[in-house]
Amino acid sequence: QGVLVPGLGTFAVVPEQINSTEEVYVVRRPVFQLDMDMSCLQELVFPTVMIPGDIVIMPLDYWWLSQTNSLPPDLVKGCVEETILLYSFQLRDRQHPAFAFENIGILSCQDNVLCMQFHCSCIAGLESQDTWVALLLT
């Protein structure tokens, strides 16, 4: 399943098959498909990530988020939207702040390359059987 964060992109977990000389590994690894206004990304390069069509993409669940922090869902939605808007304005102004997602990773821009770096703990939490293979891939 994937989660669409409107104005920013989609987080998903995709299976990937790796063939080694001894065996075949199928690991689940996190990916992030950027979906921002292209005018925000002038002069920036970002990896093209395609999420397979068979992955179910759900909208961000503001109600669930509100339950984790005791704020009303409308307030949570407004905060998320304003934060993404602020981030896009900063990118447009050639500022390159890091955008941290708790327990997931960091969206950062280094040398004009905007990319998502997932925390090792996030990857390990998704793939318990072949953790090292998934860590190397991601």
From TrEMBL:
<feature type="domain" description="CCDC81 HU">
    <location>
        <begin position="57"/>
        <end position="129"/>
    </location>
</feature>
<dbReference type="InterPro" id="IPR040673">
    <property type="entry name" value="CCDC81_HU_dom_2"/>
</dbReference>
<dbReference type="GO" id="GO:0005815">
    <property type="term" value="C:microtubule organizing center"/>
</dbReference>
<dbReference type="Pfam" id="PF18289">
    <property type="entry name" value="HU-CCDC81_euk_2"/>
</dbReference>
<dbReference type="InterPro" id="IPR026295">
    <property type="entry name" value="CCD81"/>
</dbReference>
<protein>
    <submittedName>
        <fullName>CCD81 protein</fullName>
    </submittedName>
</protein>
